Amino acid sequence: MTMPATTWTAATLPVDDNVNPYVFSIALNSPWFMSKGAMLAYYGDVRFEAVTAYASMQAWVAARFSSPIYVQDWVIAEGHGRLLIGDRGYDLNSYDLDAGNLTIKAGNLLAFETGLELKQSIVPGFVTLLGTGRFIASSNGPVIFVEPPFRADPEALLGWADCPSPSVHHDAAWMAASIAGALQGAFGRASGEERQYDFTGQGTVLLQSSEIAREDPAVLRLVEAQTQLLTNSQAGSLGQRLIARAQQQ
Amino acid sequence: MARLIADKRTLRVELAGERIRAASGSMVAVEGDVEFKHSGMGGGGGMRAALKRAVAGESISLMDCAGSGRVYLAKDALDVMVVDLAGDTLTAESDHILAHTDGLRLDVMFSGLRGVTSGQGLATTTVSGHGQIALVSDGPVMALEVSPGSDLVVDPDAYVGSRGALQMSLVSGVSWKSVVGEGTGEPFSLRFIGHGLVLVQSAER
User: Fold this and answer.
1) What does CATH list as the number for A17-139?
2) Fewer CB atoms inside 10 Å of the end CB: C or N, chain A?
């Protein structure tokens, strides 16, 4: 039988490197945080433990993973072996942080070493990694690096490093129309392009070349948690608007 | 001799009066004089296999392509690879079979409870004989070697096929169930022991 695929064994798989553009091989010796469902295959003695279960045994986990809304989407992989991870056939890249900080779209972060600390970004749907260590992230198409000042489409934005969090920029023409429209209660017309993230200062912005976003279960939890800011009557009217929106679809 | 040639995401089939079988609906273009016909019970292996298939839910719908010319086949823009068989046996998920030449025999092999959760059927398809088979995969396929002392665990959705003297078992359990896979995801994983190659694609569907 001739097999056109490249053959790998536990010994020949790359050490902490890409197997192909879409698969990354982690040489597991110390624990890694891993996104659920990223595992494709593994050799060796590897165990997966829920972050919640692991945190009760190891106190450092709670200090490293300070993002409650993401806890249920992550596991800790520990043991020894080669772990292959992938994400919907997206391009995978590994990044090294050296006492740095980088914010990335939560759905694109696949794994990170325990030398890094995960925090929730102020920007919804994004998480910030702090410290020293390696992480693996996916992107739809190759990653594009740009320097501020820069305005990014929220869907194509993958993350940013070393620069201040972005502010939201609205297209001036759209603003003018919306201010007029608000009088008639028609606020919120969305073409998808009128809202952009505005980056200023020193740093690097990471973009992916496509705008397809994955449904991030944590966004729902995040928005739900924020509804505590609302009064009961406000919450009621929000509920009615959401029902109307669901019925429209 | 009919030839299957993989070209990234399409399969080119050169026919000179022979017959091949291809997944129903996979034809994208044709040159020359080629006839297409639904191959009835499909999947080969005769009535017995068809019955097993019906019981197992390993569904495969194939069509006959016969004549002289060139046929282009594709499925969901998935990557295509062609495996040459010389009297040996390949195990593959029926979902991943795009086409095969006439000399190959397809049969159904029960593979335990796996199908209950992965939705890929209770059985897998074995392909044996002399000829070529084209498989589709989401991203490039890695052939991962299994040998004694070097077991392999694979996500069922990333599993494409295998060959060799392999035993497959389920890795399950409460911890796995609660830990790996998203909501509707996989409570099970596949553990392979023995000697052989396991084909794994780059993405879980």
Assistant:
1) 3.60.160.10
2) C
